[in-house]
Amino acid sequence: MITGSFQIQHLLHPYDYQKTPHFHDVNELLFTLNDDATMLINQDAWSIQAGAIIFISQGTLHAKFNHDTKPINSYVIHYAPFLLRELSTPSTDLYTLFGEQNACLQLNNSMMQKMVLLFEKFLSFPSVFGNDLMNINCFMEVLLMTAPILQNGSQERTYQFFRDDKWLSPILSYIDNHLTERITLDDLAREFYTSKYTLCHTFKRKTGLTLTTYINMNRIKMACLLLRQGVSVKETATRSGFSSVAHFIHTFTDFTDTTPGKYAQTLRNGQFVPIPHAICQPSDYEDSPGK
Q: 225 in a domain, yes or no?
Protein backbone atom coordinates (compact mmCIF):
# COMPACT_ATOMS: atom_id res chain seq x y z
CA MET A 1 0.00 0.00 0.00
CA ILE A 2 1.65 3.26 -1.11
CA THR A 3 0.39 6.57 0.21
CA GLY A 4 2.08 9.78 -0.89
CA SER A 5 5.67 9.65 0.25
CA PHE A 6 5.52 6.58 2.46
CA GLN A 7 4.69 2.90 2.19
CA ILE A 8 3.18 0.64 4.87
CA GLN A 9 3.12 -3.16 4.95
CA HIS A 10 2.05 -5.91 7.36
CA LEU A 11 4.59 -8.72 7.02
CA LEU A 12 3.26 -12.15 7.96
CA HIS A 13 5.09 -14.60 5.69
CA PRO A 14 8.24 -16.32 7.04
CA TYR A 15 10.34 -14.75 4.29
CA ASP A 16 8.78 -11.29 4.09
CA TYR A 17 11.55 -9.60 6.07
CA GLN A 18 14.97 -10.25 4.62
CA LYS A 19 17.58 -11.73 6.99
CA THR A 20 20.51 -10.54 4.89
CA PRO A 21 21.84 -7.15 6.03
CA HIS A 22 20.61 -4.51 3.59
CA PHE A 23 19.84 -0.80 3.39
CA HIS A 24 17.32 1.59 1.87
CA ASP A 25 17.57 5.09 0.49
CA VAL A 26 14.65 6.04 2.74
CA ASN A 27 13.92 5.77 6.47
CA GLU A 28 12.27 2.68 7.94
CA LEU A 29 10.07 2.16 10.98
CA LEU A 30 9.71 -1.50 12.03
CA PHE A 31 7.18 -2.60 14.67
CA THR A 32 7.54 -6.29 15.54
CA LEU A 33 5.24 -8.72 17.34
CA ASN A 34 7.85 -11.50 17.38
CA ASP A 35 9.60 -12.59 20.58
CA ASP A 36 13.23 -13.65 20.80
CA ALA A 37 14.72 -11.84 17.81
CA THR A 38 17.89 -9.85 17.12
CA MET A 39 17.98 -6.53 15.28
CA LEU A 40 21.24 -5.58 13.59
CA ILE A 41 21.71 -1.85 12.96
CA ASN A 42 25.09 -1.01 11.44
CA GLN A 43 27.62 -2.50 13.87
CA ASP A 44 25.20 -2.68 16.83
CA ALA A 45 22.67 -5.35 17.70
CA TRP A 46 19.69 -5.40 20.05
CA SER A 47 17.86 -8.37 21.54
CA ILE A 48 14.19 -7.56 20.89
CA GLN A 49 10.83 -8.91 22.00
CA ALA A 50 7.24 -8.40 20.87
CA GLY A 51 6.39 -4.71 21.08
CA ALA A 52 9.78 -3.45 19.91
CA ILE A 53 9.66 -0.50 17.54
CA ILE A 54 12.82 0.28 15.59
CA PHE A 55 13.71 3.50 13.77
CA ILE A 56 16.25 3.03 10.96
CA SER A 57 17.67 6.05 9.17
CA GLN A 58 18.37 6.37 5.47
CA GLY A 59 21.34 4.32 4.25
CA THR A 60 21.73 2.30 7.48
CA LEU A 61 22.80 -1.34 7.20
CA HIS A 62 20.24 -3.47 9.05
CA ALA A 63 18.68 -6.92 9.39
CA LYS A 64 16.22 -8.71 11.68
CA PHE A 65 16.94 -12.29 12.76
CA ASN A 66 14.21 -14.44 14.32
CA HIS A 67 15.63 -17.17 16.54
CA ASP A 68 12.59 -19.45 16.28
CA THR A 69 10.59 -20.90 13.40
CA LYS A 70 7.45 -18.84 13.96
CA PRO A 71 6.23 -16.75 11.01
CA ILE A 72 7.30 -13.14 10.94
CA ASN A 73 4.68 -10.74 12.29
CA SER A 74 5.82 -7.16 11.78
CA TYR A 75 4.54 -3.85 10.50
CA VAL A 76 6.91 -1.77 8.37
CA ILE A 77 6.72 1.83 7.17
CA HIS A 78 9.20 3.21 4.64
CA TYR A 79 9.14 6.97 4.34
CA ALA A 80 11.16 9.77 2.80
CA PRO A 81 13.08 11.75 5.46
CA PHE A 82 11.87 15.04 3.96
CA LEU A 83 8.32 14.10 5.00
CA LEU A 84 9.34 14.69 8.63
CA ARG A 85 10.38 18.24 7.78
CA GLU A 86 7.06 18.88 6.04
CA LEU A 87 5.07 17.61 9.04
CA SER A 88 7.13 19.49 11.64
CA THR A 89 6.10 22.72 13.35
CA PRO A 90 8.25 25.31 15.19
CA SER A 91 7.49 23.59 18.51
CA THR A 92 7.44 19.96 17.26
CA ASP A 93 10.56 19.17 15.24
CA LEU A 94 9.94 15.62 14.02
CA TYR A 95 13.02 15.59 11.81
CA THR A 96 15.45 16.32 14.64
CA LEU A 97 13.94 13.52 16.73
CA PHE A 98 13.33 10.85 14.08
CA GLY A 99 15.14 11.91 10.92
CA GLU A 100 18.74 10.80 11.33
CA GLN A 101 19.10 8.64 14.43
CA ASN A 102 18.70 4.87 14.79
CA ALA A 103 16.86 3.62 17.85
CA CYS A 104 15.32 0.44 19.22
CA LEU A 105 12.49 1.02 21.72
CA GLN A 106 10.51 -1.50 23.76
CA LEU A 107 6.81 -0.68 24.27
CA ASN A 108 4.94 -1.96 27.30
CA ASN A 109 1.93 -4.27 26.78
CA SER A 110 -0.61 -1.45 26.92
CA MET A 111 1.26 0.66 24.36
CA MET A 112 1.89 -2.39 22.19
CA GLN A 113 -1.85 -3.11 21.93
CA LYS A 114 -2.57 0.53 21.11
CA MET A 115 0.12 0.46 18.43
CA VAL A 116 -1.34 -2.71 16.85
CA LEU A 117 -4.78 -1.07 16.66
CA LEU A 118 -3.22 2.04 15.13
CA PHE A 119 -1.41 0.07 12.43
CA GLU A 120 -4.54 -1.95 11.63
CA LYS A 121 -6.46 1.31 11.34
CA PHE A 122 -3.66 2.58 9.09
CA LEU A 123 -4.11 -0.40 6.75
CA SER A 124 -7.91 -0.37 6.73
CA PHE A 125 -8.57 3.08 5.26
CA PRO A 126 -10.60 2.80 2.03
CA SER A 127 -9.41 4.47 -1.17
CA VAL A 128 -11.75 7.43 -0.91
CA PHE A 129 -11.45 11.20 -0.89
CA GLY A 130 -9.28 12.24 2.07
CA ASN A 131 -7.47 8.88 2.26
CA ASP A 132 -4.06 10.58 2.05
CA LEU A 133 -4.82 12.88 4.98
CA MET A 134 -6.14 10.00 7.11
CA ASN A 135 -2.93 8.06 6.50
CA ILE A 136 -0.73 11.04 7.33
CA ASN A 137 -2.67 11.53 10.57
CA CYS A 138 -2.05 7.87 11.48
CA PHE A 139 1.63 8.20 10.65
CA MET A 140 1.89 11.23 12.93
CA GLU A 141 0.07 9.34 15.71
CA VAL A 142 2.70 6.58 15.51
CA LEU A 143 5.50 9.12 15.80
CA LEU A 144 3.90 11.11 18.61
CA MET A 145 3.12 7.94 20.61
CA THR A 146 6.78 6.91 20.57
CA ALA A 147 8.33 10.38 20.88
CA PRO A 148 8.31 10.51 24.73
CA ILE A 149 10.12 7.15 24.93
CA LEU A 150 12.73 8.24 22.42
CA GLN A 151 13.21 11.58 24.19
CA ASN A 152 13.75 9.79 27.51
CA GLY A 153 16.43 7.59 25.96
CA SER A 154 14.63 4.39 26.93
CA GLN A 155 16.59 2.08 24.67
CA GLU A 156 19.04 -0.65 25.54
CA ARG A 157 21.91 -1.88 23.42
CA THR A 158 22.71 -5.45 24.39
CA TYR A 159 26.06 -5.91 22.67
CA GLN A 160 28.35 -4.61 19.95
CA PHE A 161 28.49 -6.38 16.63
CA PHE A 162 31.06 -6.39 13.82
CA ARG A 163 33.47 -3.73 15.06
CA ASP A 164 34.18 -5.53 18.34
CA ASP A 165 35.24 -8.71 16.55
CA LYS A 166 39.07 -8.79 16.68
CA TRP A 167 39.29 -10.68 13.38
CA LEU A 168 36.75 -8.52 11.51
CA SER A 169 37.56 -5.06 12.82
CA PRO A 170 40.88 -4.48 10.99
CA ILE A 171 39.41 -5.86 7.74
CA LEU A 172 36.42 -3.53 7.92
CA SER A 173 38.69 -0.58 8.70
CA TYR A 174 40.89 -1.44 5.73
CA ILE A 175 37.84 -1.57 3.43
CA ASP A 176 36.55 1.75 4.83
CA ASN A 177 39.90 3.42 4.19
CA HIS A 178 40.31 2.04 0.66
CA LEU A 179 36.69 2.01 -0.53
CA THR A 180 37.32 4.39 -3.42
CA GLU A 181 40.36 2.40 -4.56
CA ARG A 182 40.72 -0.97 -6.29
CA ILE A 183 40.35 -3.71 -3.65
CA THR A 184 41.07 -7.31 -4.67
CA LEU A 185 40.88 -10.54 -2.70
CA ASP A 186 44.59 -10.99 -3.31
CA ASP A 187 45.26 -7.59 -1.73
CA LEU A 188 43.16 -8.40 1.34
CA ALA A 189 44.63 -11.87 1.79
CA ARG A 190 48.17 -10.48 1.53
CA GLU A 191 47.40 -7.58 3.89
CA PHE A 192 46.07 -9.90 6.60
CA TYR A 193 48.42 -12.85 6.07
CA THR A 194 45.74 -15.37 5.24
CA SER A 195 44.45 -17.35 2.27
CA LYS A 196 41.65 -16.11 0.03
CA TYR A 197 39.60 -19.17 1.01
CA THR A 198 39.92 -18.49 4.75
CA LEU A 199 39.29 -14.78 4.24
CA CYS A 200 36.10 -15.27 2.21
CA HIS A 201 34.58 -18.09 4.24
CA THR A 202 35.34 -16.57 7.65
CA PHE A 203 33.96 -13.19 6.60
CA LYS A 204 30.76 -14.81 5.30
CA ARG A 205 30.35 -16.89 8.47
CA LYS A 206 30.76 -13.89 10.77
CA THR A 207 28.68 -11.32 8.84
CA GLY A 208 26.29 -13.25 6.61
CA LEU A 209 27.71 -11.32 3.64
CA THR A 210 30.31 -12.10 1.04
CA LEU A 211 33.24 -9.69 0.91
CA THR A 212 32.19 -8.62 -2.58
CA THR A 213 28.67 -7.81 -1.39
CA TYR A 214 29.92 -5.86 1.62
CA ILE A 215 32.29 -3.77 -0.48
CA ASN A 216 29.81 -3.16 -3.29
CA MET A 217 27.01 -2.35 -0.84
CA ASN A 218 29.09 0.38 0.78
CA ARG A 219 30.10 1.71 -2.63
CA ILE A 220 26.45 1.88 -3.67
CA LYS A 221 25.61 3.74 -0.47
CA MET A 222 28.33 6.24 -1.35
CA ALA A 223 27.04 6.45 -4.93
CA CYS A 224 23.49 7.20 -3.76
CA LEU A 225 24.82 10.10 -1.69
CA LEU A 226 26.79 11.48 -4.65
CA LEU A 227 23.82 11.17 -7.02
CA ARG A 228 21.64 13.01 -4.48
CA GLN A 229 24.23 15.81 -4.58
CA GLY A 230 23.84 16.09 -8.36
CA VAL A 231 27.12 14.38 -9.34
CA SER A 232 27.04 12.83 -12.82
CA VAL A 233 26.79 9.06 -13.28
CA LYS A 234 30.28 8.89 -14.80
CA GLU A 235 31.92 10.86 -11.99
CA THR A 236 29.94 8.94 -9.38
CA ALA A 237 31.26 5.65 -10.76
CA THR A 238 34.85 6.87 -10.40
CA ARG A 239 34.44 8.52 -7.00
CA SER A 240 32.68 5.51 -5.46
CA GLY A 241 35.44 3.09 -6.44
CA PHE A 242 34.11 1.29 -9.51
CA SER A 243 36.56 0.36 -12.27
CA SER A 244 34.18 1.31 -15.08
CA VAL A 245 30.83 2.99 -15.68
CA ALA A 246 29.43 -0.28 -17.05
CA HIS A 247 30.37 -2.19 -13.87
CA PHE A 248 28.88 0.61 -11.75
CA ILE A 249 25.56 0.59 -13.66
CA HIS A 250 25.34 -3.21 -13.48
CA THR A 251 26.07 -3.31 -9.73
CA PHE A 252 23.82 -0.34 -8.93
CA THR A 253 20.93 -2.00 -10.78
CA ASP A 254 21.47 -5.29 -8.94
CA PHE A 255 21.23 -3.52 -5.58
CA THR A 256 18.47 -1.00 -6.25
CA ASP A 257 16.42 -2.43 -9.13
CA THR A 258 16.91 0.79 -11.09
CA THR A 259 19.74 2.38 -13.05
CA PRO A 260 21.74 5.28 -11.57
CA GLY A 261 20.45 7.53 -14.35
CA LYS A 262 16.80 6.75 -13.56
CA TYR A 263 17.52 7.07 -9.84
CA ALA A 264 19.00 10.54 -10.35
CA GLN A 265 16.10 11.56 -12.60
CA THR A 266 13.58 10.47 -9.96
CA LEU A 267 15.40 12.55 -7.36
CA ARG A 268 15.38 15.59 -9.67
CA ASN A 269 11.62 15.17 -10.07
CA GLY A 270 11.20 15.16 -6.29
CA GLN A 271 9.68 11.68 -6.27
CA PHE A 272 9.81 9.02 -3.56
CA VAL A 273 12.54 6.43 -4.21
CA PRO A 274 12.16 3.36 -1.97
CA ILE A 275 14.95 0.85 -2.55
CA PRO A 276 13.38 -2.62 -2.34
CA HIS A 277 14.28 -5.51 -0.02
CA ALA A 278 16.65 -6.95 -2.58
CA ILE A 279 20.35 -7.46 -2.44
CA CYS A 280 22.70 -9.17 -4.86
CA GLN A 281 25.03 -11.58 -3.08
CA PRO A 282 27.48 -13.08 -5.60
CA SER A 283 30.21 -15.51 -4.68
CA ASP A 284 33.49 -13.70 -4.00
CA TYR A 285 35.15 -15.92 -6.56
CA GLU A 286 32.48 -15.22 -9.18
CA ASP A 287 32.61 -11.45 -8.86
CA SER A 288 35.80 -10.09 -7.34
CA PRO A 289 35.36 -6.68 -5.64
CA GLY A 290 38.27 -5.34 -7.64
CA LYS A 291 36.47 -5.64 -10.97
A: yes
Of 133, 159, 185, the residue at which a domain comes to its end is: 159
- For β-strands 103-106 and 37-41, DSSP reports them as unpaired
Q: How many domains does the structure of the chain reveal?
A: 2
d(CA 123, CA 14): 20
d(CA 179, CA 54): 29
Q: How far apart are CA 229 and CA 26, in angstroms?
A: 16
The residue with greater pLDDT, 215 or 17, is 215
- Say which DSSP state 155 is in: B
Query: How many of the other CB atoms lie within 10 Å of CB of 280?
Result: 17
- CA distance linking residue 278 with residue 281, whole number of Å: 10
Summary count for the chain: helices (H), strands (E): 11, 10
Q: How far is CA 89 from the centre of its chain?
A: 27
Q: Which of 102-111, 114-123, 252-261 has the lowest mean pLDDT?
A: 252-261
In eight-state DSSP terms, residue 26 is S
pLDDT at 280: 44
Residues 222 and 85 in one domain: no
* Residue 56 contacts residue 28 (beta carbons within 8 Å): yes
Q: What is the pLDDT of residues 66-80, one digit of tens each?
A: 766 777 889 999 998
* Better-predicted residue by pLDDT, 127 or 246: 246
